[in-house]
Amino acid sequence: MLHPEMYYFVQKECTTNWHLNDHKILAYSLLFVMEGSAHYIIDGKSYEPQKGNIIFIKPGSVRTAWTEGMRVTALDFVLPEGESLELDTMMYRSDLDAFLDIFRDIRPDWLLRRQGYELKCQALFALVLHKLMYEVDPGKRNQHVENMKSYILEHYKEEILVNHLAQLCNLNPVYCGALFKKEEGCTIAEFVNRLRMNKAADLLRKGEHTVGEVSESVGFKDIYYFSNTFKKYMGVSPIQYRNL
Fold it and tell me: pTM value?
């Protein structure tokens, strides 16, 4: 788990006069190119970011940069000792507008420094990092798999059949299962069970339901099968989990 602290945030227009001399970066740096383009040399390697590209630089890297004109959002942050973050030096996101929406929320609080701004801005910055680290660019998502996931999220309490999912997506059942595993890194059955177990864990944590009620509410007819599946995913039985 990371505990990032953003200490620099700026949105600006960079003209041909903008130039960063060769120097070592002391903190993590993110630069989102909103318009235009730039030239970066990072640790001796050249990059040519354009609209939609994000430049990520780690502490200790040496950076030089210049531009013929661009509009950017730049953020610098630090991590506590012992924590580190690895991202590609240059990335592309087709969902740039989603990041712009977050930046629009950060900007007024960061500039006005109203009471509680630190908490809000750090939370929003954590959302930026979460999108970069864990959310697949929508332009790279497979729509068939996204449709299957949406259906599963709505109907996880019911019996989920690969043949039915394949029919919904107009795919061959064998190809449907293979495609899902390729995109998600797990089978459809594993995805369904993980979702059901997480839902069950939430209910057990509240302590308002019996194990049997929880089992039925997440789509299991056999309480013993539910208990075995829960222990496989959570490492303890449902009763043990509820009593933690």
Answer: 0.71
